Amino acid sequence: MIPKLLSFLCFRLCVSQRDIRGDGSLPKPSLTAWPSSVLSAQSNVILRCWTPTRGVDFILRKGGTILSVPKSRESTEGLAEFHLNDLKGSQAGEYTCEYYRKGSPDISSQRSDVLLLLVTGYLPKPSLRVYHQVKVTAGEKVTLQCQMPDRLFMPIMFALLKAGTSLPIQYRSPTGRETDFSLEDLTGSDTGNYSCMYYQPRAPFQASDPSNQLEILVTDWPGNASGDYTQGNLIRLGLGALLMVIMAALLFEAWYSPKESPSGS
Ligand SMILES: *[C@@H]1O[C@H](CO)[C@@H](O)[C@H](O)[C@H]1NC(C)=O
Ligand SMILES: *[C@@H]1O[C@H](CO)[C@@H](O)[C@H](O)[C@H]1NC(C)=O
């Protein structure tokens, strides 16, 4: 029982989330946008391509086409930063990155997941309103409605944005001119300023201005664990506590069990 539990604990705690691949191919890198993937025209954004593999070279693509954009850091650290400055609407689109190890032949990685970069201000601003109230208690739900001023006869998607978060937090297709976003099982960390926008999910990826901001306030229950513990941490703490209890029980048993065995051998 104990060795099994220990090896399970070690499996959970000792092995990190590192990508170990059996076939020797290079795992895909991750691509993120800073400060955000939704930006106004003329602003600057840094696209970061990251992989745990060191000593590789990176490539950035937009819609499959290789881009040559200034890179800030040499790729010895497994990180490349691509700077897109003074953004124009034509730079909106689907970006991916990949890396390769020089050799003969070069070995290249798989492409990262697609990052959708949106440049706002090309379609009229939508409005955002909240059903019921903006002050809620942890565990409750809030529904936000985003509405565009005119019905557009082209494919459109809505996105819900939260200030300080680099990616939209929800995407929804419209019902007529509007859509409802629901935020469920809220916790204190969901407190913040929300806005919405809509965009064309295909080229030329035109995007509206963001709506007005709505501040949502989520109050935690007194005495409830705050949002600081992730579920994974709670599981680890729980397993650690269980192990301590089992060890205490074994010690207790060893201490109080009869010193001689009943058979007398
Ligand atoms: C903790 O919060 C949940 C909702 O997230 C609530 O149902 C529960 O009653 C709270 N517990 C305490 C001890 O306040
Ligand atoms: C929301 O925005 C307002 C105005 O910028 C600011 O005063 C407020 O602190 C923000 N709320 C949160 C939770 O960040």
UniProtKB/TrEMBL annotation:
Residue intervals passing through the bilayer: 234-256
Main location, first listed in the record: membrane
Record flagged with keyword Cell inner membrane: no
Entry keywords, A to Z: Disulfide bond, Glycoprotein, Immunoglobulin domain, Membrane, Repeat, Signal, Transmembrane, Transmembrane helix
Gene Ontology CC annotations of this record: plasma membrane
Membrane topology annotation: Single-pass type I membrane protein
All residue ranges annotated as the Ig-like domain in the record: 124-196
UniProt signal peptide: 1-16
Xref: InterPro entries: Ig-like_dom, Ig-like_dom_sf, Ig-like_fold, Ig-like_Receptors_ImmuneReg, Ig_sub
Biological process according to GO: immune response-regulating signaling pathway
Presence of keyword Metal-binding: no
Annotated compartments: Cell membrane
Family: Belongs to the immunoglobulin superfamily.
Protein name: T cell-interacting, activating receptor on myeloid cells 1
Species of the source: Otolemur garnettii (Small-eared galago)
Organism placement in taxonomy: Eukaryota, Metazoa, Chordata, Craniata, Vertebrata
Gene designation per UniProt: TARM1
